[in-house]
User: Fold these one by one.
Assistant:
Number 1:
Amino acid sequence: MILASASPVGLTLAVAAAVAYLISGLGAARLGARTTRIAVWLAWLLHGLLLGLSLTGAELRFGFAPALSVTAWLIAAVYAVESHLYPLLETRWTLSALGAVAVLLGVLFPGNLLHPSASVWLPLHWALGIASYGLFGAAVVHAWFMSRAEERFRLAADPHSGMPLLTMERLTFRFVSVGFVLLSATLLVGLLFETRLYGSSSGLKFDHKTAFSLLSWLTFAVLLLGRSRLGWRGKRAIRVLYIGAGLLLLAYVGSRFVMEIVLGRST
């Protein structure tokens, strides 16, 4: 989650994880379901080792790329478990490409150094936020799978999606519900203790990150309320989910990308 500067070991792990991700996606048709599932697990383990190694670095950093890297790792974990429970669930090249790109970006752009006066609770605050990213990311992936499966079913092109649609729908909104709880906790901690967390004396700031985070929280609240009270399902619910996930992506990853890469600023 908090990445140190790239090292030879880190680069080796990153390249190996990226290769395993690509094998799991691009080689699925030739290697078979069992081999591709093994590749998914191998990629996930190598990716996890890289993240664990980063925690032992002397210089702790964080930025848009580490956030993406951890989010991709959490999504890969969910998919690896589900591919074991549902062997017919295909390995998608888009997921593999996401994992490969994210793990390499996390090493190439490790982010900014953690402020020396930042609170020891800051990693927990980030962990809650990134966990919510991962859960909403998994929900988005499931929603996309569900849309594709429904389209193929209507066209009678491939009635076997590997996972029943109702099961996929339930899992999607379970991820949304848990992600919403974690996002709520993240926002509450951030809004109440921002000065302590970030070691800043400027007090509470209502910046782009806060604005997009609150907008995403409101969007997910509307989605859950609409589903429970109004019975939202199908395309309407998926569209709202996409909007909320897009706003959440802009909240930290988008804002940090602009600050670090476009503007070249550390704060």
Number 2:
Amino acid sequence: MAKALNKTILVVDDEPNVRQYLKMVLEDAGFAVLTAEDGVVALEIIREKKPDLISLDLVMPRKSGHKLLFELKRDKELSRIPVLVVTAHAKDDLGKKDLQDLLENRVISGPGTYLEKPVKPLTYVRSIQRALGMPEAEEAEDKINLKEEIGKSMQGASPDALRQALEILKKKGKEG
């Protein structure tokens, strides 16, 4: 099966920190990542670069994920690109109707076609690997889990403790 390094994911989300977070998670798992802030920019990128998978927010300005998906479905070639909807609005007034419409009209279908924010890094990567028919890589899991553990440990650490930890990591990096 294909390695993550051979796969390009387009992350479409109007929130810059969410886009950056999802991009970082995917890059840590070995994927190449493109980003777009709305459906208009995403459609340009999709037509030009043909990503292997699209991670798509539903509620966005200019062109929503809902509208983009229906547009993609009308294009024979682009409709083949798997899509993972990642939304914070699966159960509220902003996105519930759109998500139901997509599911009922089989624009997206099957298990694992959408995730609710906030997403856990490993759940996100595993969903993408499954959608692409890829094996679940243990190296990616180790790196993601380690990064989460370090992040949790750092919350509340003093600036001095963080500097010391950084120096130790830099020193170890040079040795190994």
